[in-house]
Amino acid sequence: RMGLVRQGLVRALASEAQDPAAERSWMGAAWGLSIMATGALVMLSGWVQAITLQFGVPEGWGLALEMTPWMLLAGLPHSVAAWRHHGRSEFWGVNGYRLFTALGFLLFFGIWIQWEPAVSPEQAAALLACLHGAASLWVLLIQPVHRRAWLDFPAQTTQELWSFGRHSLMTLTGSHLLRSTDQILLGLLAGPAAVAAYSIPLKLVQLAEVPVRAFSMQAYPHLSRALRHGESLAFQHYGWRWVVGLTALALPFLGTAFLIPDKILHLIGGEVLPESVPVLAIFLIYMGLLPLDRFFGIALDSLGKPEINTGKVWRMLAFNLLGDGVLPAL
Question: pLDDT tens for residues 126-138?
């Protein structure tokens, strides 16, 4: 749902948020696609549940399958609201709903276990769903734009958002596959020990992606707004300043990790596996290029060329799978 709607909506609102009519049109399109995506996911979840009733539920999946439809429905309004805040560069709104659900869960759960220590996973999941629902109800009560928009699905903007969003969805899918295929193939070809040696340095990459993702979220509306207003020089200046600044901040850490990899791996994963050291060295190269790679992606989205970004990610995935298949045979 996020991959289908968010990037296209943020790009549109970044330059048209000051036009109430245009904003209503884009918000109507966002609500239309989000409702359709949510309906499709709920039906898929029900289909999977029906299959598991026939063949049995894998351990740990029962609660996830049961609660997924409720989480999707409860979180729909505040998700759309957060994407609108993102497009308007109102980051307090983007983070506010997340903080409400996360901190609210910790607060209520902490109070709950004082009265009833034996809280079941089902009760905890129901509490989280209720918090998502409360945040969504708040959005519908205090933001009239959402009450109007979800009843109006303009055909033209819905088609434009779909054309953009289908590429963003494929990019997001390819990125997740790119992260997970190595571990799956390592487990099949080399066993759990190889997965462990690979997973510890991978945690460092995931940590490095957090600030890069945060800064890219902030940069994307600015870049989209600059391009839609024809300010190509401002686009280049802001973008390259962002890349150079993040890379410069990362270099001291990357240098330290290169000089003392054992200590870094111990800090992240506890036990240091000798096989993890060369894996970390390779990942350090990738982490040095991470700001540039991320900027390349959001620049293409800002230019309205998400299909190029999609092609890049899926080519990377293809080369990665090819390498995983060829290297063991050499």
Answer: 888 999 999 999 9
